[in-house]
Predict the 3D structure of the following.
Amino acid sequence: MTLVDWSTPVLTVGDPIEAIGMRAGLGAEVNSMLSMAMLSGPVVAYSGHPDRWIFLTAPATSTSNTVLADLVRLGVSLFPMGSLIALPCTENIETARWINHPVPGRPLPPWQAVVAAVRRTSSVSSGWL
């Protein structure tokens, strides 16, 4: 973890942590699905237009071009290695907050589980297209 702007903690994406971003509405559905499967993990919400949620996951695995195309179509962001994710703190409380706090000793959800939940959710509800 590094400090940026004197006081805002950030997380650098890369082994062992990946990040997947999406609109808040889709994120809420994905988070619910992951919770039911007991695979939920840390999620950060950022206010904006639209509000965005970022899921922190275990390292990414290889995937097909079809899956990547689905994610692009749904407006899902896969953060490249080295990306900086601002973590919620008192200095950015107006713009960033935890949906699910990290739990010490609890493993991050598998990357592919979050991607699969995005695809399952979008196939059930076409409202996210």
Remarks:
- Strands lie at 2-4, 8-12, 18-23, 43-46, 52-57, 77-78, 84-86, 96-100.
